[in-house]
Amino acid sequence: MDVLMPQLGETVAEGTITHWFKAVGDKVEPGDNLFEIETDKATMEVPATAAGRLAEIRVATGAVVPVGAIVAVIADGSSAPAAPSAPQTSAAARAATSSPMVAPAQPMPARAIKLEAFREVRTPERNFGPARLPGGIVVTPLARRLAGEAGIDLSRVTGSGPRGRIIARDVEQATSAKARPTAEPGAEQIKALYAERPFDEMPLDNMRRTIARRLTESVQTIPHFYLTTDAEIDRLLVLRAEANAAAPTDKDGTPAFRLSVNDFVIKALALALQRVPDANAAWAADRILRFKHSDVGVAVALEGGLITPVIRAAETKSLASISAEARELAARARERKLRPHEYQGGSSAISNLGMYGVREFTAIINPPHATILAVGAAQRRPVETADGGVKFVNQMTVTLGCDHRVVDGALGAELLAAFKALIEQPVAMLV
């Protein structure tokens, strides 16, 4: 049985094999982990789906492989294992998987392979393998042809493919930029400004490239507007302290849960989206999708980037459940162990920089979401009382970013008001 590179998410066309758990000749049972894949967002283990012996490994550790390519072969357990063959090196695997001679052993669903990846494989050029520029940068055949037609100097193009590979999209973006008089300067131009100053060059990994591309697209294509309010959290802090004090403990004295302010923020946004259902939506090119549940993403900082795991149907879950799930997702996110369905999709997202002492900020919307909530630090602030006096209260500043194509100003204000009401009267989250 052929073992294929699995689909790693709607927007992922390739993955890097980082580790093989089995060697040629090893016995394999359904569910046994065969190999580990790394994408720009996560790593995941791929299990076997059939019993037998691992007869052949076709792709070496470190190779970048497109979805649907054959990476190994499992033979019937009753037959003798095939003679081990040397797995392809990373460069060889890339060349082979870029060639139209390599195809999956069975048809893949139409949505399984990203259109651009399909175009790369089906290029009509005679030289099927990718070319290398000075410095070791790989260029796919289609990108090379498009660059020639558009008169693009590939040495000035930054690749967004695996390990910096220049693909068709990069050339198309460079072509568009060439037509604009205000195109961003290239790396060599920027480096020239600092020719006499010491610096280190840090190559971009897949995660940083993806973040740069997606956030640039978000700012350029989404008409953002922002709404800001201050929410008093004195009642929330009292309720949180009482809940944590009353949490049951195990025999070692460890509490069953420990609620954070962010857990209340997640629950409040989820319920607010239910109270203002028109804002619980996403932009979908020629239509708007309105969701039944509040699937709330929570931004998690990683080394070299960030990711937004999603808490599904957060409006239906208790604060203790939200707390446990958020912690577990954040821990696996930092280990790059999230599955694609755990960070894709969602209704809205939360970015909380309060733990860093940031009072107020604006966040960039994560497409296709229509909103994002930026949460600042809780602070003791003076406020005027009804009788003209002054008292000190704990407040935090929150800023709602909205996609004006989906959420108009009044609708965004209604959502923010619903969120503030829940934060200031947190007992409403318990009923």
Task: Give the termini separation.
Answer: 53 Å
What integer value in Å does the Rg equal?
A: 26 Å
Residue stretches low in confidence (pLDDT < 50, at least 5 long) are: 80-84, 89-128
In which range does the helix fraction lie?
A: 25-40%
- The computed structural class is alpha+beta
Would you tell me which CATH topology of the largest domain applies?
Chloramphenicol Acetyltransferase
Estimate what percentage of residues fall within beta strands. Answer: 15-25%
CATH H-tier superfamily of the largest domain: Chloramphenicol acetyltransferase-like domain
Strand order of the largest sheet: 11-20-19-18-14-17
Per CATH, the architecture of the largest domain is: 2-Layer Sandwich
Helix run count: 10
Description:
- By secondary structure, this protein is α+β, with helices and mostly antiparallel strands.
- The protein has three domains: 97 residues, Beta Barrel (OB fold (Dihydrolipoamide Acetyltransferase, E2P)), CATH 2.40.50; 81 residues, E3-binding domain (Dihydrolipoamide Transferase); 207 residues, Chloramphenicol Acetyltransferase (2-Layer Sandwich), CATH 3.30.559.10.
- The protein is built from ten helices and 20 strands.
- The strands form six sheets. It has a six-stranded mixed sheet, covered by helices on one side.
- Strand 12 and strand 13 form a beta hairpin.
- Helix 8 crosses helix 9.
- About 10% of the residues have low confidence.
